Amino acid sequence: MTLAPAQTAWFAETFSLIADNVEQAILGKRHVVELVLATAVSGGHVLLEDYPGTGKTALARALAQTIDGTNSRIQFTPDLLPGDVTGITVYDQKRGEFEFHAGPVFANIVLADEINRASPKTQSSLLEVMEEGQVTVDGVTRKVGDPFLVLATQNPIEQGGTYRLPEAQLDRFMIKTSIGYPDEAATLRILQGVATPRRDLTPVATTDTIVTMTELARAVYVNPLVSDYVMRLVDATRRASEVRLGVSVRGAIALSRLSMAWALAQGRSYATPDDVREVAIAALAHRMVLEPEAEFDGVTAVAVVSQILLDVAAPRENGAA
Length: 321
Prior knowledge:
Rossmann fold; 321 residues; Helicase, Ruva Protein, domain 3; 5-stranded parallel sheet; alpha/beta; 15% strand
């Protein structure tokens, strides 16, 4: 499938329109909103590690309202069971048969709040649905919503009673990012009442719009030199002295797909090395396991990826066909 100029222009215009609408609820965080939206149209999922009160729940609700989709919120706690997430089968005595009661995972936008507070068994209940877009309960497989996006959150300052997400679970998230506090100008506007984050947004698109955008994003042209650049970046994470476990093949695919969606959002039908660099930290850093000595010395995965982006030479061509 080759993208027509009209399709490219429509995608960029619609992407901007959706981001503008969501930004009414998340003031001054345009880049984060665009990253999450690019992940959604790439068929990925988002891990938000941020402090309380930064708007994680508002972001999920605003995105669902903007695309006129369904959304649900799961508060992960130590006593949460897998069935509380996926749903359970209950015997109906009147009808004399078993009936499936769908869990909150059956929605377009699912907010998994403080996912690291649930047990590993409950965390793993999201593995199949995040990868395959389906849930299997009592041997019966059921499809979830389309589009489907999991927005999982972690609180970085409260680690007591939490269960660290295993690498297999982290690898399911296309990006890891944070919203952070608004800048001084945005905060001042909120305090003065000039700008108030909106809670009820008018839809500017539909779920079918996101499905169409996903199909178009997969048709973006990726020059072999750009693919080679992605491969060299991923390989560099595996060879870095501070890293015990580098980025997986799934991570390389995620970086490539996210770069394609990002390029189309900028009004181009082809991905460039700059697109790769723009999303590399969000797509790669959380997939790496550092050496204990490096962590003790204060080295972070973000710093390692940043250095790799400086060390690995990007192709000189812009990636056009």
